[in-house]
Description:
Blueprint: E1 7-15, E2 18-25, E3 28-32, E4 34-39, H1 49-55, E5 61-63, H2 65-70, H3 74-79, H4 83-87, E6 93-95, H5 99-104, E7 109-111, E8 116-119, E9 126-129, H6 131-141, E10 145-147, H7 159-189, H8 194-197, E11 204-209, H9 215-228, E12 232-235, H10 244-254, E13 264-266, H11 272-279, E14 285-288, H12 290-296, E15 299-302, E16 305-308, H13 328-332, H14 335-343, H15 347-373, H16 377-388
Parallel strand pairs: 4-5, 4-14, 5-6, 6-10, 10-11, 11-12, 12-13, 13-14
Antiparallel strand pairs: 1-2, 2-3, 7-8, 8-9, 15-16
Helix pairs in contact: 6-7, 7-9, 9-10, 11-15, 12-15, 14-15, 15-16
This protein binds zinc ion.
Residues 321-322, 325, 327, 329-330, 356, 359 line the site of zinc ion (ZN).
Amino acid sequence: MGNRPPITFDVIARDGEARAGILTTRRGLIETPVFMPVGTAGTVKGTRFEALEDELDARIILGNTYHLWLRPGDDVIRACGGLHQFMGWQRPLLTDSGGFQVWSLGALRKIKEEGTEFRSHLDGSLKFLSPEVSMEVQAALGSDIVMAFDECAAGEAPVEEVRRSMELTARWAQRSRTRFDSLQAAASDSGRTEATDAISGAQALFGIVQGGAHLDLRRESLCRTREIGFEGYAIGGLSVGEPKDVMWKVVSDIAPELPAEQPRYLMGVGTPEDLVEAVSRGVDMFDCVLPTRNGRTGQAFTSRGKVNVKNAQWALDRRPLDESCACSVCKRHSRAYLRHLYMSGEILASVLLTHHNLAFFLDTMRCVRQSIRSGDFTKFRREFTERLNANGPENVLSIT
Length: 400
Ligand SMILES: [Zn+2]
């Protein structure tokens, strides 16, 4: 490995604030802007890894630290050679810190300076997650990109509470950095072999900007996060129920101010339309459960808006989900057949809809990258949005 940095990032084209780049990791190249399918429990639900690699060509997927820590446990994953080996996925992985999941537990958790105490959603046992524990678990998982342990303020929280939360996130970011660095140093000092290499020693750490809807707090958080110094920067605490205009106000203000030479990641966002909008504000990386979750509930994202396969109007419809989609589901199956599968409770309905949705998200990002490189992003963005909205407001993509 020598002294090669865990990741490098090169911006190769710009169009306004939009950037096309190459994120290089030891497990492969990632062209940005990129959408990362979410693999919560070590699986992108309803999808085989062959499909993710060969047909969908997903370059990076997410793992959830909270879920994997509770089950099967970081000891099991470490003993199985790290998360890549355990899952059978050799391309890059990003793991979140668990901060958002424990925060989402609401009444089941207690946040203190030291960390967060909570009851496991699996068996009710008392657990404690801190910046140090999160870094140790993510080192055991061996992900290529590790996220700092943060706290997310409730959307409707008073400004003083959001400030307190943002300041706690800043202190936790420093503790994450310190523990992460000592783990990386220990791994590289131990004369690692190929086997231990997969576990730790060449990871990158991303910091997270918090501050709710308050631009002054967001800017302060940005400043404090930059001061600590990370290999990439994320905007967290959005898409948690706040109005869309609040999200865009924060993204427009903060994304262009994140270090230009490093990747920028908007966490947990969003619909295809949201991705394109965020790219126009300078964001490079995204993750969201929408394509997989909505696939399981019978909803397809298409270039002309969303299609609810349950609707009786598709019962005899022999057209594919999306006539402009080149995925294997659209090549082979009709809306009528997909509706039949869904109405019959067949597992294949979830599998096929998830596959198409992921194909649509990943293809959209491919078109986004191409248009930035050719200087046509503005035109692409306009046409993409017009097409989505062509069937009227009831067919507009939206979070449901
Ligand atoms: Zn398709």
